Automatic annotation (TrEMBL):
Keywords: Iron, Metal-binding. This is Non-haem dioxygenase N-terminal domain-containing protein. Pfam families: DIOX_N. Residues 3-100 form the Non-haem dioxygenase N-terminal domain.
């Protein structure tokens, strides 16, 4: 069985119901899916990934590592295995929506996130209709 591949360009057309059903099926059966024709350039996606990673390292990593739940988990891992918590595979998730305060000390973060929200194409700004009809932009970046 292959990972679901969904053509996002059909979301707001005649095949909306079918596309939504494919998204639901991908979420229910796989937990994820691959999107084609989503209208976001590879260059912008790479910049978003970089600024989210930079933001985590600059602003959030230390607080995460020093939080009480992580300290307790670290003690548990070290007690129950020969490994250390920092050697385990971790994921960090950023969830940003239009009404969030995006203030950040990370250079380029605010601009990049706002650009993803309005989707600039070269110097011409355009709305894809997807964010307007379906949801404000949400970003997920993994570490």
């Amino acid at each position: 069985m292959a990972i679901p591949v969904i053509d996002f360009s059909k979301l707001n057309g005649e095949e909306r119901a079918k596309t939504l059903a494919q998204i639901a099926k991908g979420c229910e059966e796989w937990g994820f899916f691959q999107l084609l024709n989503h209208g976001i350039s590879e260059e912008l996606l790479q910049r978003v990934k970089k600024v989210c990673s930079d933001c985590y390292k600059l602003e959030r990593e230390e607080g995460f590592k020093n939080s009480t739940p992580i300290k307790l988990l670290s003690e548990l891992v070290e007690r129950k295995s020969d490994d250390k918590l920092e050697n385990l595979d971790w994921e960090d998730v950023f969830l940003l929506s239009d009404d969030n305060d995006w203030s950040s000390k990370t250079p380029g973060f605010n601009t990049c996130v706002q650009e993803l929200g309005i989707l600039k194409n070269n110097d011409d700004e355009y709305e894809t209709g997807f964010f307007v009809l379906n949801a404000p932009p949400a970003l997920v970046a993994y570490e």
